[in-house]
Amino acid sequence: MTTSETTDTRPRCPMAPPEFDPLSEAALRDPASMYTTAREKSPVFWSDLIQSWVFTRYDDVFRYLNEPELFGTPVEGQITVPDEFVDRFSPELPSKMMTAMDPPVHTPPKKAVQQGFLRPNILKLEPRITARANALIDEMIAAGTECDLMTSYSDPLTMHTLMGLLDLPMEEAEAIWNLGESSIRVLSSSQIPMDEPERSQVWRAYVEGQEHLYQIIDERTANPGDDIISIMAAQLDDEGRPALTRERIAQHIAEIAFAGHDTTAQLMTNMVIYLSEHRDQLALAVDNPKLWPNVVEETLRRRPSAPFAARRALRDVVVSGIQIRKGDNVWFALASASNDPAHYDNPVEFDVQRRRPMDHVAFGRGPHTCPGAPLGRSQAAIGVRTLFERLPDLRVADDYSLDFAPLVIIPKRNSLQVHWTSPRH
Ligand code: HEM
Questions:
Q1: How far, in Å, CA of 252 to CA of 228, rounded?
Q2: Are 153 and 415 in contact (CB under 8 A)?
Q3: Cα separations (Å) of 424 from 133, 297, 389?
Q4: Are 72 and 312 in contact (CB under 8 A)?
Q5: How many whole angstroms from 383 Cα to the centroid of ligand 1?
Q6: Contact at 8 Å (CB) between 43 and 57?
Q7: Whether the Cβ atoms of residue 232 and residue 244 lie closer than 8 Å to each other
């Protein structure tokens, strides 16, 4: 947040309703629930908590995510490389994160990254996902009849898939995890500043994590494989020169590390909760496995893993009758839009047979639409299908605790207790 914004005391109306509290019990159980009244009465409201306008209606979210000239993601000048790292890390690099650029500069790197998620690349990873899913379930069965699904299954399966995408050995997993964590903190520092010693620690992890990848990127540039690092290194611009420098590739890997992990792991765990609570819907997917992709989509619609997309107004604009000023922060409430009764019949019903299952905004829309969606979809469908095939009566514990990291912008589930009785070996 810049100084001018923190001292901006203009009155903002309408204000957030009292139930807009992402860490309340009701919102942790169902994030969409905190928008029900607002969407009808004040579909655009101001939240002091997140210092942002919040857009709640499907129509506004869909329309304005597709208008990057009105709502952009610029962090230019807002993320400063600390003095101790400027010799090692170019000060212009933070503004070259994919999530921090707007078209047209955003378009070529986005295209380069998307090449790594084309159908053949995903198909190649699917046997690996299935094999790892079964190995993790073997370990769960060997350990008893209950476990914490996040740490025993959703997190490790997702990390294993990511390492396959990058074609890196599992010994590198911790380094990639740390790189992803530091990356999200650096990105969010444009809104939530860091103090010492956190600032130096985070930047050291971020810079060293990327330097560690330089040699690997050089090797893949010289001897390309078919992994996403090689694919990014092989992309050429219109003049036939490499589209991305080694430093830019390392930074995009850092983004992939943070954007690709929690989103998919949380999705799988959310699927298990919905199916455990709606056994009729589980029975439909078991009887007709073609419905597993619909389970993925319906879960994403009801509970998007990324509950919002953040932007800044680049011009003055009126949205649903409310004046938004240039420079104001805006939070596109994906969890609200995907549950808007003006767009969906019975939006709170979990229905794996919806006619247009992919009609939701859980992967965003417009230029920043998630490039990893094909991988997230594939892993979640395989992962949860395999889980219920091996553990058909798997259930979430009746008294499962709402164990979330207390992050207002993205409350992240730490654990989920599940149990079963009759495994299939
Ligand atoms: C099912 C799981 C996933 C969900 C729900 C999800 C959701 C999202 C959303 C909503 C955005 C757009 C944010 C915005 O507009 O500001 C996004 C962007 C992004 N996602 Fe995903 N994602 C998932 C999986 C993945 C995976 C598996 C990867 C990579 C391995 C990935 C990589 C990215 C990247 C790099 C961006 C930034 C794109 C850009 O700024 O142009 N995501 N994701």
A1: 10
A2: no
A3: 14, 27, 8
A4: yes
A5: 19
A6: yes
A7: yes
Dist. CA 383–CA 145, nearest whole Å: 19
Distance of CA 12 from the midpoint of ligand 1 (Å): 31
Q: Across the chain, what does the average pLDDT equal? A: 93
Distance linking the first and last C-alpha atoms of the chain: 53
Q: Which domains does the chain have, with CATH numbers?
A: 3-419 (1.10.630.10)
Tell me the pLDDT tens digit for each residue of 356-380. 999 999 999 999 999 999 999 999 9
Q: How is residue 181 written in tokens? A: 């964590």
Amino acid at position 221, single letter: T
Ligand 1 neighbour 363 (Cβ under 6 A): yes
Ligand 1, atom nearest to 97 Cα: 40
What is the 256 CA–ligand 1 centroid distance (Å)? 8
Pocket test for ligand 1, best of 311, 370, 409 (most atoms within 8 A of CB): 370
Q: Which residue, chain included where needed, has tokens 């000060």?
A: 91
Contact in structure between 70 and 315 (CB atoms under 8 Å): yes
**How far is ligand 1, taken at its centre, from the CA of residue 329, in Å?**
20
3-state secondary structure of 277: helix
Tell me if 305 CB under 6 Å of ligand 1: yes
Report which protein residue has its CA nearest ligand 1's atom 30. Answer: 260
| pLDDT value at residue 11 | 67
Which atom of ligand 1 is found nearest the CA of 309?
16
Give the whole-angstrom CA distance, residue 110 versus residue 96. 11
Distance in Å, CA 310 to ligand 1 centroid? 13
Q: Which helix (H) or strand (E) holds 405?
A: strand 404-405
Q: Are 252 and 98 in contact (CB under 8 A)?
A: yes
In order, the DSSP letters of 168-199 are --GGGHHHHHHHHHHHHHHHHTTTS---TTHH
Q: Is 98 in the pocket of ligand 1 (CB under 6 A)?
A: yes
Structure tokens at 114: 């998307």
Residue 163 has pLDDT above 80, yes or no: yes
Ligand 1 centroid–CA 367 distance in Å is 11
Burial 256-287 (b: 16+ CB within 10 A, else e): bbbbbbbbbbbbbbbbbbbbbebeebbebbbe
Ligand 1 near 370 CB (within 6 A):
yes
How many whole angstroms from 376 Cα to the centroid of ligand 1?
9
pLDDT digits (tens, 9 = 90+) for 69-112: 999 986 766 788 999 999 999 998 988 889 889 999 899 889 98
